[in-house]
Every structure is written in C-alpha cells, then in structure tokens.
Amino acid sequence: MKEQIFIGGAWPYANNSIHVGHLAALLPGDILARFFRQKGEEVIYVSGSDCHGTPITERAKKNGVSPEKIARHYADEVKKNFEDLSFSYDLYTDTMHPFHKARVQEFVKIINEKGYIYSKEEEEDYCASCGKFVSDRELIGTCPICGAECNGDQCDKCLTALSPDMLLNKRCKTCGQKTITKKNKHLYFALSEFSDAISKFVENNKDAWRPTTINETVKYLKEGLRDRALTRQLDWGVEIPISGFEDKRMYVWFEAVLGYFTAGERVAKERGEDFYKFITDKNTKSYYVHGKDNIVFHTIILPALLEAIDPEINKPNTVVACEYLNMGNDKMSKSKGNIITVNSLLANFDSDSIRYYFILNNPEKKDGSFSIEDFIDTHNKHLVGGYGNFVNRNLSFLVKRFGGEVPKLELDKSVREVVLEAYKKIGQLIEKGENKAAAEEMYLLIKFANKFYDESAPWTLYENNKPQFDRVTSNCLYLIANIANITSPLMPKAAEKVKRYLGVKDCGWGEVFYDETVKLENISVLFNRIQPADVDLSKNAGDTFKV
Asked: 6: which DSSP letter?
C-alpha cells in the first residue's frame, strides 16, 4: 500500500529576488519529494510566494507602482528560479490566487464561529497629515539601542528587532511628519487558548525535529503563548470576512502558513482526490521545510490554527528547519551587500552542481558558510573528478574501443552488496530529513566506484584478458547505473542523462541494471570543470524589477 506524503516548502516573500540562504533552506523539500515519488508513494509537494504585507506596499511606494505589480514580478521570477533548479513542486502558487483568498477567508469564519477570534482596541501610530494609521514599516525614527535612523520593525545598523513603541522620534515615512497615537480596533486570534494542546503536540513530535527546532519551540512555550493580532491596517492583502473590519486586511502570518492547505487542496482537486481525507489520515507523513526564523510558525502557530479549524487535520510530523547560511564569516545582509542571488548562481553554474553543493554543505544543525571558492572546489573535485570522471572514462572507453557495445551483465557479490547497502542507508537518511549525511554517503559510493575501477585497471585487460575486462566493465556500468539512480533526487539532470545512455528504465528506489542490448553513442561529459576566471557573480546580480 502506498504511503501518503505531504511536503510543504516555506513561502518566499515576493518583494525581492531570493538568495542562497533561501535555496539552502528549501532544497531539502525537493530531495524528499523526489525520493518518495521514486519509492512509488503518493506525494503532494507545494509552496508559493507570500505576496501580501507591508514590505511589498513599501516597495511599491518606493517604485511608484501598485503592490500587485511588485508581487507579481517577484512571484513569477521565483517560480522560474525553482523551475531552473529542477524543483518538482506539484504546485507553486502565490497568496494572490483567488482560491487561496477564498479558502483562508473560510478558515477565518470557521475559527470565528468557534469563538477563537475577538476584537480589541489598542493604541496605534497615526499620521494626522496623511489621515491614516501607519504600520511599523511605514514609520521612521531613531533606534533606541544605537541611535541610527531606522524603520519601526528593525534597525539595519545594529540589527535589533524593534516594535513601534520602542522607536524614538517617530515620523511618518510618507510625509515626514511626527505621528501621534490613536485607538484602533483589531481582531485577535486566541493563541493562548491552545497552550495545553500545543505542549502535548510538541512533546509527541519533537523526536522528529532537530535540536534548534526543539530549543526554539520550547523557549517560546515557556514564555507563554500570547494572542496574536489577526488584522493589519493595510489596503493590500486578503479582505476580512467579518462585519466592521472591512478596512483591515489579514496579517500574513495567518494566511501564508495556511497556504500549504489551500495549495494542497488544489493539487488534490486536479487529481480528483479528497484532500480532507488525505490530510486527516493518521498515516499521512507531513514534512515542513524552511529556515530557522520560521520555526515557531510551524511548530506552534500553524498547529494552533489547525487545532482551531479542525483537530483532525494532521499537524507537522517532521519539521526540517535549516540554520542560517553566512557569506564567509559574515551574516548575509542587503545593507552589507554580501548577498548572492539565485539569479546570479544560475547565470554561472549548472543546476545539478548548485543542488549538490547546497545539500552537501547544508546548514542542518549549525550555521553554515558559503564561498564561491569552496563551491568551485567542491564541483571540480566531487562532480568533475569524482562522479563525472568515473562515468566518462568507462563509457568513452567502450565507445572508442568497442563501438559502444556493452558487455553482458556479470556482477561481483561484493559490489552488489555495497550498492544495496547504499540504497538502504541513504534512503533512511533522506526519510529522516538528514540530506547532508545522505549526500556524503552518495559521494562515498562514488569514491568506492573509482577505487574499484583503479584497482581493477580495466585498461590493462581489454587486449589480453577480454573476459576479465568484460567482468570489470560490467560491474562499473552497474555502479554507474545505480549511482545515477541513487543520486537522482539530488542531481536529476545528470541522472536522466546517464540512465538514457544505459537504457535504464526501472527507476524505483532500488537496484537497477543497464540494458545489455544498448549501444553507447553521443556520449558527453556530465560536468565541465569550472575555472575561477570564468565566474562573474555580477551576472544577473542586481535588482530585477524595472519600473
């Protein structure tokens, strides 16, 4: 019987191009999806762009365009980035989609009817000159920590997280006038009502979480769950389906995390399947893949929302949260100018090479460090000198000496045992979300294959001992076919190329064999060596939005 797998990749914010940190956090989701599909399981893998909220409205003001134009530009760009990186989402959508808006409005109604939403008046910053309430991103003032000029949510100089009440000398960013405070009515989600339920959920599932995920979640719980504002005073966002709040919009923390379910439902509908049955089946495994700044949204807030909507809906079984990826020893920051975008990576490197590097060096349990020098070294050593060299020297030799004819299958027991053990070990690691260790095991298999080739020295056998040459080469072709199959969740393009060469058609998660009748032709190298002088990170590196 097929397993049911639900995988949600975090939704990138559609106000700028995505960078290597986003890639490192989200790539593990695609490895999981490809692996489980290869096993023959039923997979729903979704994500999308988060298109509402203040940062987008501020960006729109700066460029003199509508928020929708900004959001649509970056949502489309990011979708193409993922396609170019061979991500295999069943659906990559965005929060502007009518189905998403309608469904999250229904969720609000359900939660409200159950009594978990209430209204409250609070003091809020107001610009008399503009005649409107202003949000944290619409405020500018003095940082109380370092004295620098900053927005009302964070100081870019000292990186302190702020709230509007902490900001000194507050002014409206639009007109520059000082703000005052006035009472404003907002809706709140009663998160505190779910303290016991969430504590129980965390206790039952934390064995499938990484240490940082557990620590961040427990810390948040110990501080006590506080009710969260559901509405914001904005024009751009999902409308509130509750009378008296027509001038408000949904806070993105609410609607974006529920996007997993609006997107998943669309996938199920297209397949003619019952999504509610899928997502309430206790045997369904769910994986949520994101960076550590999103941990509590997936371990506390999303589970609480699901508990409020319908306690039968599966909450996150496995949370795959990555640490931060730094540039050298520095945290990536737009103000420092040390961010490398995915656009720039794709302009310089092969997508399989990008995928391999960011899984092999994934910041799974501690912050990682990225440098172009390390990327080039890894590519040239592992993919050119290791994997690519093993494939090329075997296949090109057969083409050159034997017209592309391959020998009959004749396997050594020891070689086969290594391959079967690799499937078992690597499969177990991927299922647990330990993709970095899985990539390391893949490279060990590649090293084993090269060692087998070197010690067997088939180039000395082809003239004087053809039967022994055929045996060695058969084992090498078997290794090539299975390395391709095992690495296909990570490097799908190279895997398909190799499988096509060798006529490999049965591509489940298990042993495969090359076609003895195949004739090798049009063989080309899998990976080209990268010369540092050929890399230009200024390619496609700037802001892609043009007014």
From this structure: E
Query: What digits encode the pLDDT tens for the residues 225-280?
Result: 999 999 999 889 999 999 999 999 999 999 999 999 999 999 999 999 999 999 99
For residues 121 and 116, what is the distance between their CA atoms, to the nearest angstrom? 17
Q: What's the pTM?
A: 0.94
The β-bridge partners of 44 are 6
Tally the C-alpha atoms within 13 A of residue 253's C-alpha that lie toward its C-beta.
21
- Cβ(304)–Cβ(197) under 8 Å? yes
DSSP string, 397-433: HHHHHHTTB-PPP---HHHHHHHHHHHHHHHHHHHTT
- Both tokens of 219, joined, read 């810390």
Range 425-429 contact pairs with CB under 8 angstroms and sequence separation of 24 or more: 426/486, 427/35, 427/39, 427/509
CA-CA-CA-CA torsion sign (51, 56, 59, 61)? positive
Which candidate, 358, 324, 322, 286, places its Cα nearest to that of 210?
322
Enter the tokens of residue 24: 């490192």
Cβ–Cβ < 8 Å for 206, 217: yes
- Among residues 445, 454, 449, which one has the least CA distance to residue 486? 445
pLDDT tens track for 493-514: 999 999 999 999 878 999 999 9
- Give the position of tokens 């659906």: 91
**pLDDT for 195-230, tens place per residue?**
999 999 999 998 889 999 999 999 999 999 999 999
